[in-house]
């Protein structure tokens, strides 16, 4: 889809559906694999990605690429925004990197995602920082998802975290803190492993933005 007001082509990915076994398996599998250099030609031999996330992204990579290219051509826009939540955030981050590598330099590629799990290793995080310096991943209070897969399995977040510490239930206003660096103990990386909140993963994040089946009209 695209937003004529901001002249932006938008790519959005849904989050994990607990009713879908495949999504659950993708999230539970922590194995790493070499980056697909057909989709990520700038990835070095040391770049490793979550096998399930990469496989899921690869299933739709061609259609995402062709649809974005077609939309840019038909609209004349020069900006792409990639977003998603949970598993969708992981896929969105991979799509954003793929698009940045493939699209002309005069096309701006941005990505803002919510509840992002760790997607790859340190070289991948470094590559993301280089490709997408304005990449933003929003984390919400005690959401456990940004802390999986764990760092001791050689997973690493890129920079760009914006961490919500509180949300006013009446106004929807969020208190947010900046999180310099790739992993910041003052933000989600410092969350307790025992005091977690799945509801925080669904939201609200800010401005009463929430995710999950309950937010969708039947």
From TrEMBL:
Domain of life: Eukaryota
Any single biological process term in GO: lipid metabolic process
Cross-referenced CDD domains: Lipase_3
Pfam families: Lipase_3
Catalytic reactions on record: a monoacylglycerol + H2O = glycerol + a fatty acid + H(+); a diacylglycerol + H2O = a monoacylglycerol + a fatty acid + H(+)
Domain Fungal lipase-type: 10-151
Keywords carried by this UniProt record: Disulfide bond
Entry's family note: Belongs to the AB hydrolase superfamily. Lipase family. Class 3 subfamily.
Protein name: Putative feruloyl esterase A
């Amino acid at each position: 889809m695209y937003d004529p007001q901001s002249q932006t082509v938008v790519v959005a990915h849904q989050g994990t559906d607990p009713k879908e076994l495949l999504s659950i398996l993708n999230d539970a599998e922590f194995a790493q694999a070499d980056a697909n250099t057909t989709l990520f030609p700038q990835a070095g031999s040391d770049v490793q990605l979550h096998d399930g996330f990469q496989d899921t992204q690869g299933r739709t990579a061609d259609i995402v690429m062709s649809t974005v290219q077609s939309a840019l051509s038909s609209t004349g826009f020069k900006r792409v925004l990639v977003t998603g939540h949970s598993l969708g955030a992981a896929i969105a981050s991979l799509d954003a990197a793929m698009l940045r590598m493939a699209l002309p330099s005069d096309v701006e590629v941005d990505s803002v995602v919510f509840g992002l799990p760790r997607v790859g290793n340190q070289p991948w995080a470094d590559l993301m920082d280089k490709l997408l310096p304005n990449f933003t991943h929003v984390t919400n209070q005690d959401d456990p998802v940004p802390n999986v897969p764990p760092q001791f399995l050689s997973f690493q977040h890129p920079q760009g975290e914006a961490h919500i510490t509180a949300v006013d239930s009446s106004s929807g206003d969020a208190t947010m803190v900046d999180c310099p660096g790739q992993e910041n103990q003052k933000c989600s990386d410092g969350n307790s492993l025992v005091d977690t909140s799945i509801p925080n993963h669904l939201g609200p994040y800010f401005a009463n933005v929430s995710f999950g089946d309950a937010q969708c009209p039947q």
